Amino acid sequence: MIRTSSLRKVRFLLEYGEAQGDYRSFLLYNTGGEDYDTALNKGTVEEKTIQFDPHATISGLLQRSKSKPEELPPVLALHLGNYYYRVYQNYPETWLLKKEEVRTQALRWYELAEKNSILVGESEIRGYATLLIEEGKADKAISLVREKIQFFSTHDESGSENLWWFLIDLYSRGGRPVEAFKELDERIRLVSSGKSSTDLASLYEKGAEIAIHHARKPEFERYVTNLEKTVPDKQMQWGALRHRFALRTGDPIAASALAERLYQRYPVTSILKENVLEMLMQNYLLFSSYRKEGLEFLDRQIKTYQKDSKRLFDLYMYRSAYRLQIHVNNASEKDPQKAIPHQVIQESIQDLKQAESLYKSFKDQDPEILSILDEWSKELGKFLQSNPTP
Question: Which residues have C-beta within 8 Å of that of residue 312, sequence separation ≥ 6?
Answer without folding.
Answer: 302, 305, 306, 354, 358
